[in-house]
Design goal:
It is a single chain. The protein is mainly alpha-helical. It has one domain (2-114). Helices cover 82% and strands 0% of the residues. It is built from five helices and no strands. It has helices at residues 2-15, 22-38, 43-59, 67-86, 89-114. α1 runs antiparallel to α2, α2 packs antiparallel against α3 and α4 packs antiparallel against α5. The radius of gyration is 14 Å and the shape is globular. The termini are far apart.
């Protein structure tokens, strides 16, 4: 759990700077998610999830530069950590589901902007 907390703090520290390094921010966000995945200690889950994560992060790179996305990320990371620490499976499921819904909306919005 400590690695998850440390990864989240590193991301949040960078995200809340006056001028964050967006490339670093994306890498720190990916590190946060990978720390959660690795905590499963399930090699198959780790392999599948990390593959999906890499593809996913390539598609949302630009979104990490928007302040509303960063605010959502801070809130979402904190929510996930709190749910993990509380061992609250329902809240973990809800937090991840809400995050996926949000990112799907961001992806659709970005794709519509490309047209």
């Amino acid at each position: 759990m400590q690695l998850i907390r440390t990864s989240a703090k590193a991301w949040e520290d960078e995200a809340t700077k006056d001028e964050p390094n967006y490339d670093l921010l994306i890498q720190l966000d990916l590190q946060f998610h990978k720390s959660i995945i690795r905590a499963t200690h399930n090699d198959l889950v780790i392999m599948l999830a990390e593959t999906v994560e890499e593809m996913f992060f390539q598609s949302v790179t630009e979104a990490h530069t928007h302040s509303d996305v960063i605010k959502f990320g801070i809130k979402g990371h904190r929510r996930i950590i709190n749910a993990l620490e509380a061992h609250d499976r329902n809240e973990i499921t809800d937090a991840v589901s809400d995050s996926l819904t949000y990112w799907r909306e961001q992806f659709v919005k970005n794709k519509q902007g490309d047209n």
